[in-house]
Amino acid sequence: MSDLVIDGVSVTHGSTLAIHDVSVRIDSGDLVAVLGPSGCGKTTLLLAIAGLLPIGAGSIRIGERELSRPGRTVPAEKRGIGWVPQEASLFPHLSVADNIGFAVPRGRGGAMGRATRIAELAELVGLGDLTGRAPNQLSGGQAQRVALARALAPRPELLLLDEPFAALDTQLRVGLRREVAELLRAQGTTSLLVTHDQEEALTLADKVAVLRDGRLEQFGTPEQIYQHPASDWVASFVGDVVELDGLWRGGRVTCALGAVEATAVGFAPADGDRVRLMLRPEWIVPRPELLAHAAAGADARVAAISYAGHDAMLSCDVVGGPTVRMRMAAVELPHVGDEVRLAVQRPGLAFPATPLPAQI
């Protein structure tokens, strides 16, 4: 296996620049999620990597083998890349075994070798006892397993997955995507997973590439993307945020929750500058035991609780201030109407203040 290197790639659809100057290196064996809202260029990038769209600038290569540059594109069938689409797209007249076998290279080991490879792949995706079934006898999850086995059949250097779990119901989606991620890691298959689902990207991937309007906003581990977003847009897109206006002073933001330690992202504020403080709801904790003390924080009253089983989102009215949301484990939850003292348990993120509206 070799690294996938995308270097300064741009792709144009007609007069529209769909991908703009994207550069990223994907290490051999990694599972990388390409995350972004609809229309941001995720699938366009996959199509360019697969050789189904030409690029207007930059280059794409696997190891030392160049696949694309302006004016030159290695045909899709010669790239050694597998593809798992959103819909399984199985041949309806072929059995599970024959659908998998369609992608097994011919001439390797004869009929016996092909049969052995098909059986291995069927077992690999957990369908060893269903090889004789027709596609219309499979569940959605089973059909996607067949599509995965078919994509892995020629032993690709790279596997592209275009929202392969989007059409499945929630319970099936969660279980199948975890199994697929474990299988790909066990096989050492370098993989790109396109998704608009933040949870899917954060829970499955080794690295996450966040796209916005055809540009790469951030590339890093799931923890880096969530805990240390490179911009306020990434912070808001990947997970929930609480936004508060405040003043910057010596590495802290004075806001409705007191003087909160913060890290300035992408700019260097001076003392007294207005900033926007962004916090994850789980960074805010209720500290009833601090009510009688003058510790940093803010008094509040629980206004509403949204219970989600494993955790809950609380809306708390800060005394003399705004309503803020906090997330906590659903164990010994306070009650609506309870008084709490809110404190922030880790540094927040400071971004430039939202410009004031122009005076008319």
From TrEMBL:
Superkingdom of origin organism: Bacteria
Domain ABC transporter: 4-238
Broad class of enzyme this protein falls into: translocase
Documented EC number(s): 7.6.2.9
Keyword Cytoplasm tagged: no
InterPro entries on file: AAA+_ATPase, ABC_SmlMolc_Importer, ABC_transporter-like_ATP-bd, ABC_transporter-like_CS, ABC_transpr_FbpC, Mo/tungstate-bd_C_term_dom, P-loop_NTPase, Transp-assoc_OB_typ2
Transmembrane segments: none
SUPFAM superfamilies membership: MOP-like, P-loop containing nucleoside triphosphate hydrolases
GO cellular component, one term: ATP-binding cassette (ABC) transporter complex
GO molecular function, one term: ATP binding
PANTHER family: SPERMIDINE/PUTRESCINE IMPORT ATP-BINDING PROTEIN POTA, SPERMIDINE_PUTRESCINE IMPORT ATP-BINDING PROTEIN POTA
Name of the protein: ABC-type quaternary amine transporter
